[in-house]
Amino acid sequence: MGIFSRTRDIIAANVTDLLDKAEDPAKMIRMIILEMEETLVEVRASAARTIADQKEMRRHIAKLNGLQDSWTEKAQLALSKDREDLAKAALVERQKAADMADHLNHEIETLDEALRASEEDIAKLQGKLREARARQNSLVTRMQSAENRLRVREAYAGEKVNDAFARFDMLERRVDMAEGRADAMSLGAQPKTLEEEIAELKSADKVDADLAALKASMNREG
């Protein structure tokens, strides 16, 4: 069963209210658009039939006008032959053709009114359809945005992130252990005695003296 009972309901419908009351707005807007599109096709098809009917009537009217001319000629011929009875009968037939042509002209006027109404309905339906499609695009955009936010939140709160932080904790623990082992190597080391430090100074002085002597010897040779 459709949402609308067709054209009048669609034109009068408030799309926003329909979506606000719907349990599934995305599904509802798809149904609304589908029914609007189907109705628009039907109204256009009806307008096309009306136009075709008018064309057929105008062709018939043209034939009736020709028939009236023919009966006029026949009436004139009958009168020229002093056959007033035949002339009168011919004029009766001409009047029948004229009456039929008038009837068809009235029908065309009625169809013109119907066609103008259809044209207005088509314009209104197109406007409603544009509104519905705009709402659909808005819903799709909002849905995509919500899904993206959900994925981001899941990424921050999900198991993968928890696992990553757990691995970071393990790495930090390993670094702590390595630093601890390095620091432990220096524990218990005996400080140098005064004599050892003085001996190191003497050794350094001797190396400096040897280096100075070597430089002087090379300078003399040069």
In the predicted model, the low-confidence regions spanning at least 5 consecutive residues are none
Mean pLDDT: 82
Assembly state (oligomeric): single chain
Helix count? 6
Binned strand content:
under 5%
The helix/strand order is HHHHHH
Number of strands: 0
Shape by Cα distribution: rod-shaped
For the biggest sheet, the summary is:
none
Give the helix/strand class: mainly alpha
Query: What is the number of independent domains?
Result: 2
Cα-atom Rg, whole angstroms? Answer: 52 Å
- Helical content stands at over 70%
Topology of this protein?
Blueprint: H1 7-12, H2 15-21, H3 25-80, H4 84-157, H5 159-185, H6 194-221
Helix pairs in contact: 2-3, 3-4
Describe this structure in words.
- Belongs to the PspA/Vipp/IM30 family.
- This is Phage shock protein PspA.
- Pfam families: PspA_IM30.
- Residues 94-149 form a coiled coil.
- Keywords: Coiled coil.
- With 222 residues, the protein is mainly α.
- It has two domains: 7-157; 164-186 and 198-221, no CATH class.
- It contains six helices and no strands.
- The protein has helices spanning 7-12, 15-21, 25-80, 84-157, 159-185, 194-221.
- The longest helix has 74 residues, at 84-157.
- It is rod-shaped, with a radius of gyration of 52 Å.
- The N and C termini lie far apart (115 Å).
- The mean pLDDT is 82.
List keywords for this structure.
222 residues, mainly alpha, 2 domains, 6 helices, 89% helix, rod-shaped
Provide a concise account of the structure shown.
Belongs to the PspA/Vipp/IM30 family. This protein is mainly alpha-helical and 222 residues long.
